[in-house]
Specification:
- This protein is an alpha/beta fold.
- The chain is 25% helix and 20% strand.
- It has three domains: 140 residues, Sandwich (Immunoglobulin-like); 311 residues, TIM Barrel (Alpha-Beta Barrel), CATH 3.20.20; 96 residues, Golgi alpha-mannosidase II (Immunoglobulin-like).
- An eight-stranded parallel barrel has the order 10-11-14-17-18-19-20-21. The chain has a six-stranded antiparallel beta sheet with strand order 22-23-24-29-26-27.
- Helix 6 packs parallel to helix 8 and helix 13 packs parallel to helix 15.
- The longest helix is centred in the first third of the chain and has 22 residues.
Length: 685
Amino acid sequence: MNFDPNPVLKLDGYLKPNIPAIATRYRQMRDWQTKIENTEGGLEKFSRGYERFGLNVGPNNEITYREWAPNAIKASLIGDFNDWSRDSHPMTKNNFGVWEIVIPPGSNGQAAIPHDSKIKISMVIPSGERIERLPAWITRVTQDLSVSPIYDARFWNPPEAERYKWKHPRPTKPRAIKVYECHVGISTTEMRVGTYKEFTRDVLKRIKDLGYNTIQLMGIMEHAYYASFGYLVTSFFAASSRYGTPEELKELVDTAHGMGLTVLLDVVHSHACKNVLDGINMYDGTDHLYFHEGSKGNHELWDSRLFNYGSHEVVRFLLSNLRWWIEEYHFDGFRFDGVTSMMYLHHGIGTGFSGGYHEYFGDAVDTEAVGYLMLANSMLRQLYPDEGGQGIITIAEDVSGMPLLCITTDIGGMGFDYRLAMAVPDMWIKLLKEKKDEEWDFGNICHTLENRRYGEKSIAYAESHDQALVGDKTIAFWLMDKEMYTNMSDLTERTPIIDRGLALHKMIRLITSGLGGEGYLNFEGNEFGHPEWLDFPREGNGDSFKYARRQWNIVDDPMLRYKYLNEFDKGMNWLEDKYHWLSAAPGYVSLKHEGDKIVAFERGGLVFIFNFHPDKSFTDYRIGVDVPGDYRIILSSDAKEYGGWERVDVSKSQFLTTPESWANRGNYIQVYIPTRTALVLAKTS
């Protein structure tokens, strides 16, 4: 199929000089599709690699095990089932470097390898050295730190009565996603690792109550080092056992679906852990099985291995990995981690992106990685179409601003649904860290919130897990710091620092949600101003769990002021659910007054007004409005239930437009807007 440049040029005429590069990307994806069609029978079959590789149980309880390890000259399956004998179960190798063994059922007709028993593959390489590895496609690994930090592979084949039975269909794809970014392990108040069961019982209801429609689960793909936050994956097909069993994760996802919540997996295909004994590094004794050879296969900053996206078997492994999490665990989509690192040969290291188009096309681009991402998104759309509103959602974590990232692959885009607006949280932290309130530049603030590519959806957020990690501070901590420990009780003095912190925390979130994108994201606990950073147990902190938990107790305490921030987050999200501003066209900013510190914009039929001035309130302040009529206040950050001073009487608010031009709008209203207050108005007639 020839590439037609016209749809791309219609989106962005400035891409004309780069049409040859875009056409090359498109053809590369099409070449992959043709190759897979001709050699594998199509993407549907190709992406079910887990049914061919790894351990699979047949209809008569025979077990077939296959592993790709072309450098090995001998291989055998060892484990508890054969007393770890390297001779009793030899494997045979085909012309493609794939080893295979079929193990007939035992005398009782059951699978010869017991459920949850330990196994490995033992190989001999050309040097004569014997190496032993965990199966690369293994679906269950466990760690016993009292014995060793190295994971054990287990054959997960529970009896039918113990397998989780799905109860709920997938929810309809949200009109606009409001993402609750969370990590099961830290989702307990206790100083330990939380479980899938506890998350299902305790946290899902909080998420639903707050008005989020989407959960993003982090740290699920198994990783040897807890403090890596899940970003150094060792076993790509295994759900982390530190939180519980695979069946318990299925229960979590299914329960969320029953509540109407979409569930996304934080998928890590940008790199892999360097572990050899319980990872896929040096798997068959070479450094270039799954990864690039030599320095090209190493990420200097992350100290990890980089996939060879040009390899047929690597692409099978990664595409099948996506399919596995959808089919086995019913995930509704993925947040692709480290997309910037994937798309560029420099991996974003030491590189600042100015937005110049020359940065996105040319020698710095990893065309194989871009081709893989396009192929992955194309496959997901093909296999899980949006019929009935149940298609797969994909989000790209990209800081570079790559054009066409969120444009469909059929016209030359990379196929993601959303990109993370990573410049927005950076802006907020920089402001809070470096500028006094009176120095805030609202022209720049609005530009950063509005600055996204035409036709491409962004997910805006004031802060994510990145800003909550040790070494940085959350927005609440930047605002209130040590006073959070002494003055967050309603029984204590409401100091100027606390008053400012409560007000700006709410306003920052509302303007980010209202103006910043087509989706919204929050990291768990930050909605109520979680008082402390996130720091996983590690050698540097004495393996402490003190900061690797969420202190739900403080938001549940009616005497503490955290409840006000929590209530505001809930009010904001449910209001969006009613008025759908995230799925509306981008907002129109009619006013950004640097002296008065007033910002006003319209979006989704609503009028948003913000007074960021530290000490000035304004009476009868004129705000331009496009659509004439009667307006009333539907949200005030100064309301008593949100910890405000209730200087605005919402119940009596009514504003009739005057048909005169103001701020480039055809009409205006006049409002009382107290200091450090945000108002949202809706038309009543």
